[in-house]
Design goal:
This protein is an alpha+beta fold. The chain has 10 helices and 18 strands.
Length: about 425
């Protein structure tokens, strides 16, 4: 197997096993990533808007088109115009967008080179009251699940097909021709749609499994109330507090922030017997611009496996590590401003970066150029909000057990030369049952 195959298999098998054990939230992170509360800070990106400001047109069902416009490499937008003027309700192509790519996201206002401003509508998902949608298909109407629209066709898995082939096995993949004037919002779960021949289909109601769409102003208030790391609260504590207010869905996606290897003067925060330089979370404080996708890359996720049907886990492979469940996780990158959590992703020192064999290839070994390139743009701002974790951890579990659990941290001797017991003896700890 390739690295990707093993990873995709492991992620799915992990979630399947934990679901069988009656667990709920499963956090999927790499060893160089650490989840933190997304508290309000001075270097946060602007909050997104819920609706267009007065006098600004809304662009719905929009897509980005990249190309050369008037001799320059620029982006344009294609979408459904809603605003003042005769173009209202028609599809338009904007002029060249002046903003950088990371600002061409839903909830933002962009301006083209003609001076026209557009509010980018969130078309990915909208919360609907489950009381206003159907819970199951009416008698005689087929059900479509896992739908995708490609041009004039809608693809999906069909059940109870009473039209083309009543003997067709449930769960077969099929497609129908949809009416060109079909409103896209009807493709949300719990609705009845018609194809180009007038035949009706029910879109499966997975309302409780929808990814979240949250109100920006409500999240802003919640982020101001988030606990500090030193308060001893857990990620699950925060999820439990806000899960009814924000309706997280079964796939909670979390933006990442890349921390580089730039050293800085800092106040030591490691308790007695520990060294700040052994912990990336205490040693490195400089990070990339929040919300800058070019540097921070794709999100990570927490999956509530209790709300994912077993047939979506058994014998399946994850779509990818950033979006493991294609059916339940949003395709777009989560907005930093509307996330209660963030994932700190650490580049670490060159010694640590080249220490382990990378299953994706041997590019890490001896490639200083690769290391420096990956760290570009990670000196935007300093953040210390995660650094108190170690002192809180030692206070919680006790110094002796903390030394056992953290034995060997910051040590990059070749694997195999030292055993865990040797590490603990050197650190002054003893092997105990934990």
């Amino acid at each position: 197997w390739t690295h990707r195959n093993r990873q995709q298999h492991f992620v799915m098998k992990c979630m399947e096993t934990l679901k069988r054990r009656g667990k709920t939230w499963v956090l999927l992170l790499d060893v160089d990533e650490y989840i933190a509360f997304n508290t309000i800070e001075d270097d946060d990106p602007p909050s997104l808007l819920e609706e267009a400001p007065e006098g600004v047109a809304t662009l719905k069902d929009w897509k980005v088109m990249h190309g050369r416009i008037r001799g320059r490499k620029r982006a344009q937008l294609f979408g459904l115009y809603e605003g003042e003027g005769t173009r209202n309700g028609t599809h338009i192509v904007t002029g060249a967008i002046r903003e950088s790519d990371e600002k061409i996201v839903y909830g933002n206002v962009v301006r083209d080179d003609y001076g026209t401003r557009y509010f980018l509508h969130d078309d990915s998902t909208k919360y609907q009251d489950p009381k206003k949608v159907l819970s199951q298909a009416p008698e005689g109407i087929p059900t479509l699940k896992s739908i995708q629209v490609r041009g004039p066709k809608l693809y999906g898995v069909i059940y109870n097909d009473t039209y083309d082939n009543p003997k067709k096995m449930d769960g077969e993949y099929t497609h129908i021709q949809i009416h060109p004037k079909l409103k896209r919002e009807l493709l949300k779960s719990g609705n009845i749609i018609q194809d180009s021949q007038g035949r009706k289909y029910f879109i499966e109601n997975e309302q409780l499994l929808w990814p979240p769409h949250v109100n920006a102003s409500q999240v802003l208030r919640a982020r101001k109330e988030l606990p500090a790391v030193s308060e001893g609260k857990t990620i699950l504590d925060v999820i439990e507090r806000y899960r009814h207010q924000f309706y997280f869905g079964s796939c909670l996606q979390i933006p990442r922030v890349l921390y580089g290897s730039k050293e800085s003067n800092y106040q030591p925060m490691a308790p007695t017997g520990f060294n700040d330089k052994d912990f990336v979370t205490l040693r490195y404080r400089w990070h990339a611009q929040k919300g800058n996708f070019d540097v921070n890359k794709f999100q990570k996720t927490i999956i509530d496996v209790s709300r994912v049907p077993m047939d979506h886990l058994e014998g399946e492979q994850a779509y990818n590590i950033h979006r493991p469940l294609e059916y339940f996780c949003r395709a777009d990158v989560p907005r930093f401003a509307t996330s209660l959590f963030r994932v700190n992703h650490y580049l670490d020192s060159y010694e640590a970066y080249t220490y382990r064999n990378d299953a994706r290839g041997n590019k890490r070994k001896g490639c200083m150029e690769c290391y420096l390139k990956k760290g570009n743009g990670t000196d935007f701002a300093v953040n210390d909000n995660i650094r108190p974790w170690l002192r809180s951890f030692v206070d919680e579990v006790g110094e002796a057990k903390a030394h056992v659990l953290l034995a060997g941290v910051g040590d990059f001797r070749p694997l195999g030369e030292e055993t865990l017991v040797d590490f603990m003896a050197e650190k002054g700890g003893k092997y105990v049952e934990v």
